[in-house]
Amino acid sequence: MPTYIVSAAANRLTAQMKQEIASRITESHSGATGAQGFFAQVIFQDIAQGNHFLGGRPLNADHIYVHGHIRAGRTMDQKRQLLASIVSVIADAATTQSRYVWVYLSELPPSQMVEYGKVLPEPGCEAEWLDALSTEDKAYLLGRG
Amino acid sequence: MPTYIVSAAANRLTAQMKQEIASRITESHSGATGAQGFFAQVIFQDIAQGNHFLGGRPLNADHIYVHGHIRAGRTMDQKRQLLASIVSVIADAATTQSRYVWVYLSELPPSQMVEYGKVLPEPGCEAEWLDALSTEDKAYLLGRG
Amino acid sequence: MPTYIVSAAANRLTAQMKQEIASRITESHSGATGAQGFFAQVIFQDIAQGNHFLGGRPLNADHIYVHGHIRAGRTMDQKRQLLASIVSVIADAATTQSRYVWVYLSELPPSQMVEYGKVLPEPGCEAEWLDALSTEDKAYLLGRG
User: Fold this and answer.
1) Which residues pair with B65 in a beta bridge?
2) Do C144 and A97 touch (CB under 8 A)?
3) Contact pairs from chain A to chain C, CB under 8 Å
4) What pLDDT shows up at residue B88?
5) Domains in chain A, please, with CATH?
6) What tens digit of pLDDT does each residue of A46-93 get?
7) Pick from A43, A69, A114: which is nearest to B52 by CB?
């Protein structure tokens, strides 16, 4: 139910770091919200040389920026935990310091999100939603992890 | 008044599919909201190999993700119709199944959107807005389709 | 506290134009909101040939699209000033007309934004926030401009 876009300089993150960040952001999201892992999409964007500025000047330090879109309806505590967890995942997986990590969380009403071709359920109604899928769709989702 | 970002694996969508998706998303938006087509921007993002994860694992299936930013003020019915229409456009134009389609709709107050250099009107006030443009600006917009 | 994504056709903006746009968007943001410059991130996205459509047709004119994410809590006047200033910065720095400029401003609660590893303060509480940072973090921020 969330999509996280992770932006960093091209070649900053190795394939192994990307894999670790993707799986651990997915765990962070499930841990903070209780949502199943197959709902989490993570996309990396490689920023080309010369395209990244901070304070009006070319970026000359490490910097990893995560922008998540999640379902509205989470508590402040869940969102706080999610933010803290993502900062720590990135610092750890990319072997950097938290000072170089930015994270934004945007919220969307579930009724404005389609995943796997279906409008998402409200938080707490995931089981009924899953049950209502066709056998084939359900098998596909459960195979996502 | 909307911008739709369509993300898929690099080389997944042919030039012809992109053209068809762009024109049919534009029609879907006009059909659901009544807004004129020249307000619709569609941008494709080609996701590089190794940059896309689902459920914490590398994506190993078809997947097309659309994120739209539209003017706030549409009814639930309009948004529902818009989502359904986009899912069906993507599945059809990219010859895939709706299971592989994700769509998010974010909303923005018209007062926080500038198109063609001008702050957008509230829904329903498009005609006055268009009339207030310079002759040259208006000709340019009407030439967009 | 804001992030601005500036999208234009690949090779449309020279390195010098990007530098000027980044520094002047940063000034626009500080001017309209009073926030310090080191909070402003600007990222350019180069749109590949064939990936950009307007009104359902391939884009065949100049076009620069800015999408900012800013802290919620600004007044309508501040946001209006910010939009106008960005339109004029882009038209000027990219030597184009405002007709070809689009700008969207999305808002986020400060509690859902982490910069430099820390959740952001509410507007007006920047000084206390900065004071609470470690000496090393503070030196890093103040070095950003």
Assistant:
1) B7, B102
2) no
3) 104
4) 98
5) 3-142 (3.30.429.10)
6) 999 999 999 999 998 999 999 999 999 899 999 999 999 999 999 999
7) A43
Handedness of CA C133, C137, C139, C143 (dihedral sign): negative
| Runs of H (alpha helix) within B1-145 | 15-33, 76-93, 126-131, 135-142
Q: Does B46 contact C51 at a Cβ distance shorter than 8 Å?
A: yes
Mean pLDDT, range A107-117, rounded to an integer: 97
ipTM here:
0.96
Mutate to test the interface with C, among B43, B44, B105 (most CBs of C within 10 A): B43
A79: helix, strand or coil: helix
In tens, the pLDDT along B68-100 reads: 999 998 999 999 999 999 999 999 999 999 999
Output the pLDDT for position B103: 98
Helix (H) or strand (E) holding B65: strand B64-71
Q: Are strands C118-119 and C113-115 parallel, antiparallel or unpaired?
A: antiparallel
What are the two backbone dihedrals, phi and then psi, of residue C25, each rounded to the nearest 5 degrees? Answer: -65, -40
Helices A15-33, A76-93: crossing angle, 10 deg rounding = 160
Q: What would the pLDDT profile of B102-117 be if each residue is shown by its tens digit?
A: 999 999 999 999 999 9
Spatial separation of the C-alpha atoms in residues C65 and B41, rounded to whole Å: 10
Residues in contact with B5: Cβ distance below 8 Å, sequence separation at least 6, in sequence order: B43, B44, B45, B66, B67, B68
pLDDT tens digits, B36-56 = 888 899 999 999 999 999 999
| Separation CA A14–CA A20 (nearest Å) | 10
Q: Residues in chain C with pLDDT < 70?
A: 145
Shortest distance between the Cα of A2 and any Cα of chain C, in A, equals: 14
Q: Which residues pair with A105 in a beta bridge?
A: A68
Give the span between the Cα atoms of C90 and B93, in whole angstroms: 35
Residues of A in contact with C42 (CB under 8 A): 52-54, 56
Does C102 sit within 8 Å of B116, measured CB to CB?
A: yes
Q: Which residue among B44, B45, B144 places its CB closest to the CB of C54?
A: B144
| Cβ <8 Å between C112 and A79 | yes
